[in-house]
Amino acid sequence: MTPPPPATEAKSVEPIDPRADLALHETRAQRFLTLPNGLEIACQSRTEAMHIWEDLFDKRIYLRNGITLRDGATVYDVGGNIGLFTLFVHLNYRNARTYTFEPAPPLFEILRTNTGRHGGWCRLFHCGVSERPGTASLTFYPYSSGMSSFYADEDEEKEILRAILEHEAKEGVEGVDALARTSEEFLDARFTSETFECPLVPLSEIFRQQGTEVVDLLKVDVQKAELDVLRGVAAEDWPRIRQVVLEVHDLDGQLQEVHELLGAHGFQVVTEQDPLLDGTVLYNLFAINQRMYSGAGTGTGRAEKSPNRRAAQQRRAAQQQRAAQRTAQQKRALRRRRPAKPAETTSKQPEPETSSGPDPS
Length: 361
Hints:
This protein is α/β, with parallel strands linked by helices.
């Protein structure tokens, strides 16, 4: 794994309250999407946002293998992207408190917009999280924003996306076959990039700054910088963390290192790999602190019943939207198979298709 440029002198990072900030400064977000639950959000890519929504609200990928939350939870979201996980927490758990970190300026603006409009008690940090304070270069992919990284390697990123496309093609996902036929051109377009210099902070510094006593869930999705984030938690701070969920890139033995680090601090760890990512280096880890975990949110009390009802409503909305999309696709397919009308009875000629290059949506 290629290391990032060496960190330089640390810069002070102050959290913002997105609701107060958005009231003072209008959003600069340019692309919006209405989710299946009726929520309008800003996004970098509509397609990418819908994939994230399905993972979070429909599949509930972070609440597996014993990971639970309850009303009033404190959640640290490291690698916030456009803020959908932060919104998931606030939509499902009353009086939750979230601390969300996102270094990429374009994504931070969208995160600020979404949490300012729809979030509860949030604090946003426009920075990356690492072992020590400093700054580093972030490679930002506008058309594949979830793969932006301080450890950018275009060949590695392309290999992962290529594997995802191959799995989706086997599953018959509409339109993927066409992409596969032009895969290299498609991948080149998806990994157009730009670079930003971003401040870095260790988590323990934020714990002290914010007076955080307990973290009910630490969620980490930082594209190869997982160990940097975990090493930024001082030994005396690990007992305050109940649960950890993170995506790990198994490069240079990193999966084993993360296992060992969490195990050394008393966590029981479960590893999973999404079938869509079979054959890649990507894994999800679920860790519960056995030394202090007290069974938060066992699912038997009132605090869990209401979130479960809301989640069920969101899943039904998603199912209804997908059914409507399938019906629309079938109607379009039927229209394409119908014989064309005679030329003399056609009142309008089809407009020529135009193309302006890759579109994040």
